[in-house]
Amino acid sequence: MFYYLNGTVTHVAPYLAVIDCGGVGYACHTTNVTLSALKLGKPGKLFTHLNVREDAMELYGFATEEELNCFQMLIGVSGVGPKAALSILSSATAEQLALAIITGDEKALTIAPGIGKKIAQRIILELKDKLAKGQLGTMSGERYGGTGVTVIPENKASEASAALAVLGYGQSEIAVALKGIDMDTLTLEQVIKQALKKMVK
After folding, report:
1. What is residue 197's DSSP assignment?
2. What is the Cα–Cα distance from 135 to 73, expressed in whole angstroms?
3. pTM greater than the 0.90 cutoff
């Protein structure tokens, strides 16, 4: 229904930001990461997800499309609701979450308040499985791998490629972004960050 909101930041509170668009204030549930990027009284743009329940309609907003993609991916995991997804994304950036999923780092997820070992393991298991089956779609409609035979990555380049797929990028974009990056001396997180910088230019 809403792709993004672009207006003035009129109110911020824990896990909440209000964006005034044409005189209407839209309350968006959000993360600490997004809140840190917003300034009261200044222009703000949030990519949104509308969550519809029987008793409520709630709007969630994020500073980047990558963070929105991760939120939607997390709430697609059985047993993970919007509140838990916000907790995770408030404790880790979208890039760090993608990295944790690809490397199986459950400790990076349990740092988030309310996230125990079992739910962290479920998130990693389900999302790795979806990645392997090529079910993590992107905004452009492309699929990671494309053949449904992708396995858990075994080197830095494939790990970086898989992490970028988690963030919502297609294989053609990823291939271009990773070209020319020094895989030997950079850490996996640095490789991902450099690739993201190239893609947002």
Report:
1. H
2. 11
3. no
